[in-house]
Write a structure and sequence with these properties.
There is one protein chain. By secondary structure, the chain is mostly helical. It has one domain. Helix 1 packs antiparallel against helix 7, helix 2 packs antiparallel against helix 6 and helix 4 packs across helix 5. The longest helix is centred in the C-terminal third of the chain and has 40 residues. This is DUF445 domain-containing protein. Keywords: Membrane, Transmembrane, Transmembrane helix.
């Protein structure tokens, strides 16, 4: 019976750490609002709208949408405009359409970055990323929050339980050695 002491101590260490993890996970929903506010603030500080603007107004990105604009303009100038204004179709031929299209595309090439930048300025004023993230976290269920933590820290939580078992085993072996060595 005396020699089962290390095994009992190992089980006790594992059980204590398992209970500690369960208590920790059960505390998460109670601290959800603070966690949501802190994570929202962190994301708000880390997110750079300037970087998004820079990427979206990059001349190469703008040039990549020009073919779509050209196709749309071509359809507009050849089909929809003559239907809307039949008199114009008498004066506009292929060379005129191509000239108008090339001038419009050149103008839009300069206008798009300005438009996108203005649009993003408006979005930035209206978008409160910190609040959006905070609200999303606040509205997660207890189970979702616990599953997220388990998914993120699963390996570490299991290591913590194992550490409890190992430390219990070591303590049990020390106690056993003291009991055996001391009369």
């Amino acid at each position: 019976m005396l020699y089962t002491l290390p095994i009992i101590a190992a089980l006790a260490g594992w059980l204590i750490n398992s209970i500690a993890i369960r208590i920790l996970l059960n505390q998460l929903p109670k601290r959800r609002e603070k966690l949501a506010a802190d994570l929202g603030a962190l994301a708000g500080k880390q997110f750079s709208f300037a970087a998004v603007k820079q990427k979206l107004t990059d001349p190469e990105k703008v040039k990549s949408i020009i073919p779509v604009v050209e196709t749309h303009l071509d359809g507009f100038l050849r089909d929809r405009l003559p239907k809307a204004m039949p008199v114009l179709s008498m004066f506009i031929g292929d060379s005129t359409i191509n000239q108008i299209k090339s001038h419009l595309v050149a103008e839009l090439d300069t206008l798009f970055p300005v438009m996108i930048n203005q649009y993003l300025d408006n979005v930035e004023k209206d978008l409160n990323l910190e609040k959006i993230i905070s609200d999303k976290i606040s509205h997660t269920t207890d189970e979702q929050m616990q599953q997220a933590v388990k998914g993120f820290l699963g390996k570490e939580l299991n290591t913590f339980k194992l550490l409890g078992a190992v430390s219990g085993l070591v303590i049990g072996l020390i106690c056993l050695a003291l009991l055996v060595l001391m009369p």
